[in-house]
Amino acid sequence: MLGILFTNSLIGFYIVQDGRFKVVSPQFRQISGYNEDEVIGMPALTPVLPEDRKMVREKAIKMLKGELSSAYEYRIVTKGGDTKWVMETVASIWYQERRAVLGDFMDITERKQGEEAIRLLAYHDSVSGLPNRVLFNDRLTLELAHAHRNQQKLGVMLLDLDRFKEVNDTLGHSGGDKLLQAVAERLTSLLRRSDTVARIGGDEYMLLLPEITGMKDTAKVAPKILEAIREPFMIDGHELHVTTSIGIAIYPNDGEDADTLMKSADIAMYSAKHQGRDNYQRFRQGRKRWRRKRAS
């Protein structure tokens, strides 16, 4: 009966005894890339991605004790070096008059890739690949909690490209998108790994700079950004000269929650626009709330 199950099932099966593979089905070998001679006697956790081994061991023990009823998911590394996602259940059986573990699993890599694609669409900008407004808000909220707990400051910077509409009018939306992508690359290259660059819509980018000492830190970053954006961009054979206006808000001085900080940065950015563009301004209480004009 077990032999028929192993041979005809579309799911991969294996038997583990004393922590090593004793029997594997053809489907197991197909998914893992190992032939039978290579896998028999191999430690059961060897194909499992090292980062997932502790979790797999704990889940398997819980399932064998009856504490876990649902299948669990983890990653394996095939013989060829590819990473695949599998979903597995295990059960205790008798094999050759001794206790053993019967495991079954199936390849769910395509499903996981689809889920990842959906997640990326939900939290990342489709043009630049940067985090979008939703993900930026999530990260800002987390960093605000960290800053509050550790009595630290953080900076929020809003960048708006000057006269971006003229680029779209000249090169079309395709050329405009390429410029947005190039700007995203330059911004990312300037910041720390702990910082976040997001495109929140149109020609606007939001920067999150955690664990700063105050305005002097953002005052070092902002001129570098202005200078980097001034460097010409080559888009579809055209040399584009672009500038940006930057608004800066600092936690907790300019706001203690995400919405207030972003609004403060927005007010400061429009102050920079009215100061002649291609500059940065820090939010100040009582500053005039400039009315948005989309010509930018």
Explain what you see.
This protein has helices at about 1-10, 25-30, 35-40, 55-65, 110-125, 135-150, 165-190, 215-230, 260-275, and strands at about 10-15, 20-25, 70-75, 85-95, 100-105, 155-160, 195-200, 205-210, 235, 240, 245-250, 280. It is an alpha+beta fold. It has 2 domains: about 1-115, PAS domain (Beta-Lactamase, 2-Layer Sandwich), CATH 3.30.450.20; about 130-280, Alpha-Beta Plaits, CATH 3.30.70. A 5-stranded antiparallel β-sheet has the order 2-1-5-4-3. Strands 7-8-6-11-12 form a 5-stranded mixed β-sheet, with helices on both faces.
Radius of gyration, CA atoms, in whole angstroms: 27 Å
The amount of beta strand, in percent, is: 25-35%
How many structural domains does the protein architecture include? 2
Between the first and last Cα atoms, what is the distance in angstroms?
A: 74 Å
Helix fraction? 40-55%
CATH superfamily of the largest domain: Reverse transcriptase/Diguanylate cyclase domain
What characteristic shape results from the CA principal axes?
A: elongated
Number of helices: 9
CATH architecture of the largest domain: 2-Layer Sandwich
Largest sheet geometry: 5 strands, antiparallel
List the secondary-structure elements in sequence, H or E.
HEEHHHEEEHHEHEEHEEEHE
Q: Which structural class is indicated by helix and strand composition?
A: alpha+beta
